[in-house]
Amino acid sequence: MAADASGHSTGSLSNQKRILREAHKLARKRATQLDIFAKSENLPLSELVVDVENGQDPTRFIVILNAGSTGDVGGVSVDDLERAFGAFEGFLGVEMMLGKPYSYAVYNTPTAAFQAYTVLNNSPIPIPHSNSKPLLLTFTTRVSLDIALSDPKDVMEAVPGLFLLHDFVDCEEEQNLLACVKDNANSWVSLNKRRVQHYGYRFDYPLNTVDFDTSIIDPIPPWGQEILSRYCRTFPLHSTPDQLTVNEYWPSAGIAPHADRHSIFGDVVIALSLGSGVVMEFRRPEETPSTTVSNPCKPFSYHCINIHLPPRSLLVMSGNARYQWEHSIRPRRTDIVHGRAIERGTRVSLTFRNVKRVKGCECGWTHACDVGRDDTGRLDIG
């Protein structure tokens, strides 16, 4: 075999140069994907990425930088990634978002995540359509805020005062409740892309207030009272709602960002989802220079959290979730939950609230409150 002046074989040198070129190419690709990741998440890399190669401790969250719905590893699916990352203990799931070139593998402990990272980082894995391209991995401090949360603990930590209870009713109870709602067909009032029924008190939409004439409205029916009894046993410190609105939403229907009126409804709002799930967005203003008193006319920059409300789940909005955060539903036919597209169906929401006998509010969250404001944008409670 031919050798150069130093005695090394020319074949060995050629192989070393090829390895160096591949390493440099991989490093450039990683830097590009990291830049895309940071820009997409709107955070500096120093706040977003955990560099275990330089001694930082791993987290539970692995970012797959080049495998997403538009990633470099073309055609990869959530199922493909789950097979690869699920081979390691402690695997909880993959999170993928439409239009993003990256995704996440989530583990129950940083140690479990590091074991998977050690094996899979920069290594081609047996994924169909991956063209043997290596997966580029790193650790991150958190998953994207665009991902819809569904774990009750995650929901409570993300939005203080917000509680999500899965399977608050079972499938049989769900069908019975839907049948009860359907039986009251004469009670429907048609609105834009939804229709409603009112019990206890009627909400007057043109006047945006509650009608206190109880003689023209039926009380909360027994099937609604049963839900309230169960709720009160679960949350004994909360007051018992006295008003029920049944909302029937068509699959593509949305709700504009809002908070249920502070001046006329009490401190807790609960909603039971029947028939179909939906992703609901919660938002509150960020504390930024654009929202300071010195710039009162500047628009808010919002901190947003997406929550998946599965069928039969109960959502409880209290405290900050009730007063500081607005909620909305985007008008679309499909939601992305745990990386998979879920088609919306017709959703019925049983929404229970307390009606205030004396109007008013002193919460101070003027972006969400319907009570008067002073010239600085804060609540005028003079």
From TrEMBL:
Residues spanning the signal sequence: none
Occurrences of domain Fe2OG dioxygenase (ranges): 240-356
Pfam families recorded: 2OG-FeII_Oxy_2
Domain of life: Eukaryota
Molecular function GO labels: demethylase activity; nucleic acid binding; oxidoreductase activity
Entry-linked SUPFAM superfamilies: Clavaminate synthase-like, RNA-binding domain, RBD
Single GO biological process annotation from the record: demethylation
Protein's recorded name: Fe2OG dioxygenase domain-containing protein
Lineage: Eukaryota, Fungi, Fungi incertae sedis, Chytridiomycota, Chytridiomycota incertae sedis
